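Recall the central idea of this unit: under ordinary conditions, the amino acid sequence of a chain determines the structure it adopts. In this exercise we apply that idea directly, starting from the sequence alone.
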Amino acid sequence: MNGYQLTFYTEQNRKHGHQTVCEWLLHEVRELGIRGATVISCAEGIGHAGGHHAAHMLKLADQPLQIILAVTEDEAEHILDVVRAENVHVFYTRFPIEFGIIGDDVPPKPPKHFSLYGRSPR
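Accordingly, the structure predicted from this sequence is:
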């Protein structure tokens, strides 16, 4: 399937209303029925205004985040329309990609039983 990789860039402490931008975006993604999102916490970065943002041991509030989506063209337009309508201050990139799923779902493995004596109980 052809579509887009949408990546939103924000900081852990950036708010939209009573939620962080990340929480708000993930909520909107679910509401639109988009099938997946990945949030990546970054060590540091330079923002679009030139400011340095970094995670510090005692303060993670300024930690840069990426919210990455693989979406169809319609899904990309819908989420971007929602972000624009809410006037959320967030930087994004959009790249054309091909995406899909390969293989069947893997059946769950039975739990392993361990014994202190080196043999599994029968």
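The mean pLDDT is 83.
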